[in-house]
Amino acid sequence: MTSDMLARATPLSVRMLIGGQLIGSEATIAVRNPATGDVFATAPDCSKDQLDAAVQAARAAFPEWRARPYAERQKAVAAIATVLSENLDTLKTLLTCEQGKPLPDAMGDILSGAQWCQGTATLEQPIHTFDEGPQRSGRVTRVPLGVVGAISPWNFPVALAMFKIAPALLAGNTVVLKPSPYTPLTTLRIGELLKEHFPPGVLNVISGGDALGPWMTSHPDIDKITFTGSTQTGRRVMASGAPTLKRITLELGGNDPAIVLPDIDPKKLAPRIFWAAFRNNGQFCIATKRLYIHQDIYDDLKSALIAYAATVRIGNGLEDGVQLGPMQNPAQKAHVERLIAEARAEGILCETVGTVPQTDGTFLPLTFLDNPPDSCRAVREEQFGPVLPLLKFQSTEEAITRANACEYGLGAIVWSSDEAAALSVADRLEAGTVWINDCHYLSPLAPFAGLKQSGLGCEGGLEGLQEFSAPRTTFIRRASKR
Ligand code: NAD
To answer: Exposure check for the chain: N or C terminus, fewer CB within 10 A?
Structure first.
């Protein structure tokens, strides 16, 4: 498969992995290339019976998989990284065609997934032992939960799927993975590639339309749901999982603030601050979505950001030199356009930069909002697109209060040349992850958690691994010595 083939919109189809078999379906869903608007492939539309078959296969595979020595499961999870790296070229082209992101970013998405598998595989599950005096001792071990339903979104289809399957499998569970209907292909292809790497039923990959997610979250034989997506859908997932008391991990939306202290050099830092907000076209849960700038440097940083934005090339992600692709889907594009139109109607100055290709693709230029009030919808709500409100502040205290006045609590950034000053601000921000003079960095060895309406539980690190198991305490009564 070459990029030419895909670019010419050759119909392409991939199959689901169910119980170790590659399987199509009667119905299919169309997959659109966001750079051209063309439907270039189809994916299976998993029926209810096929979901049941996947869950049954996962259930049947569970006893043998949970009994495997932990070290063997570590090797199997690390091997996913090798498969992803060995197939990087074809996977990245497919990902660009369905998601829109430029090839280097598609490569980044896949390699992040590989690194996550590699890093997760190094985690050890500690056994806690305790002594209760002469009569009793005890230990706490971890037991896997059973069948895990993993549901992923369209913005980072590969990395976010790996964030789920690596710890789930390592902990001894079996998995049914479902990608977004907007971007099912690369995940399904990875399922095809992993077919021989796991015993039948241990990893199942299915795709489908809007009905499939709710079938999974209410399925009586799925024990745990790990979900990444919007806060609105997260609430539905929780409600749907309640009757069967599913264990649930939710990685949800964000409206990340970044605070820029007055001691930075605006011109020098502008490109890094730009990419913190606009990477992946802002379709990034941990993108900067509100940029609080000290009044002393507001005008300089605004000019530097706009000047830098004008140098960024927007286009079809398959082309060399393109730095930003199209928005992933028409609904998301329309949402961002609505937010900008509303801001304009409120009299807010909107600076729009960039030339977009004239195709049926879902391209958008880059927009900066000049000091809108905090009540503006583009400030209050997650935009998830190439639009950034620039917000002027007078005192650090004010910036912290405004940054925290938000229902979300995913990530935050402090930009400053004074590390101690930045740290004291960082410690007061209501976010699960805070970066100082950095952005987007996540580690498989550290937890990534959303506070407030940004989620429940976490991914990454030992804490993330333990979301896929339960503690089991064993008390041992000592034999009396006589
Ligand atoms: P979405 O909530 O629309 O969909 C996410 C997934 O859930 C898709 O696979 C979708 O098919 C499925 N789904 C939809 N309705 C469902 C239902 N009722 N029950 C079960 N599953 C259902 O989100 P999206 O538009 O794909 O992704 C964008 C959102 O994801 C943004 O809000 C973004 O911030 C968030 N996100 C969060 C993180 C994080 O780690 N916190 C990472 C990436 C994206």
So the answer is: C
